[in-house]
Task: structure prediction
Amino acid sequence: MLDMYSKCMHVASAFKREGNEVVIKGWIYRKRSSGGKQFIVVRDRTGTIQCVADKGKISNEEWESLDKAYVESSVIVKGLVKKDERAPGGAELDINEIKVVHSGEQFPITEYQSTEFLLDKRHLWLRSQKMTAAMKVRSYIFKYARQYLDKQGFFEITPPIITTVGGETGANLFGVDYFGEKAFLTESSQLYAEAMIYSLEKVYSFAPSFRAEKSRTVKHLAEYWHLEPEMAYFDNNSSMKLQEGLVSYMANKLAEKHADLLEPFGVKAEDLLKIRPPFKRISYGEAIEFLQSKGSDKKWGDDFGVEEEKLLTENEDKPIFVYNWPKEIKAFYMPENPDDPKTVLCADMLAPHGHGEIIGGSQREWRYEKLLERMKELHMDPERYSWYLELRKYGSVPHAGFGLGIERVIKWLLNLDHIRDAIPFPRMINRLSP
Ligand code: 4AD
Ligand code: MG
Result:
């Protein structure tokens, strides 16, 4: 008798066991019957296989429970793997025994549903083939990011999520009532990562960041996963080298090992293999000139939006860096460029084909007086940042770091229309549930 704990194998392995009896556990993906036979397609995390039940071959009880089962009912199936050229995958399972583990109710998602409905049913829609592939890619991206930084000698650190510092990125913050004191959900772990380079030298945090931006764009989440490396004795150039190495590694590993997961998104592995250092670098000044030559009315000092990012990258196959931005539109901790004090030593990485900014990074002001001066210019309260300032009082060192938005990277690599499909349960201005 089949039971929940019967030894089983995954669908992908079952295909390799032609002529043998196997047990698989999964969910009914499709279902139909004709002339004393029931056909079910069973899916598990590795694939789908057609299984055929013959009325004369299984018990009445089994036949009826299968008959009553729905799409998405969970099942355990024992059967013979038979070659069949007509079946998808070239084989099907001839059922000897079947157990419907949970028949449940009619699955609410049918073929043509609105985007909003699918977002309301996100907890169920995650079972779809496309979301399954996207979530696998997400997991691999996390793995390869850590793998690369590990190979480069980094320590992973864990920053606090509830903080009192913040406001440096210009985004609005989510407030938290912390036992009567005003606190925030962090917008970036950078300041804490900076504190840890004095002992660990090369660190990264991989944690959620929160932005209470009322944006309705296809690239803004209110909660996203932020990879933030910080390195002692690095400057803006060595930081850019690390960034292009990291991004290329993630793209190349996906292409080399998981081309099958790219297919549902129409992405070619060969295109991701072309993502190799070095990436093109242009200064902010050159970017403005280029934009103006393309008819843009942006002037020196303006920040870039979707349009500008698109114009700058439309003919690129790899990401590009735009470096040394105007001081006025960047954060307080970015040091002045000695060769052009209107600008600061920083760089944004823009993904090709209009996917836009995926990394923001800079050298950090490591001199106490200079940092304090800049904070005063910006009317920031040094008291609130006292611990951060104090880092510059004892053995301060030049350093640099950057923040990479993981969902932005996934959106670009899979060429997704919207960033929400790069995260299982998106938090956006109009969505907090499920
Ligand atoms: O450019 P940002 O705001 O930079 C910082 O927060 C720095 N403190 C990072 C650092 O140097 N450690 O954010 C960094 C990246 C962006 O380039 C983008 O990829 C991502 O975070 N990001 C978002 N991703 C999704 N939704 C949002 N609302 C995002 N805002 C930023
Ligand atoms: Mg930025």
Remarks:
- Residues 272 and 363 are 29 Å apart (CA to CA).
- The two ends are 38 Å apart (CA to CA).
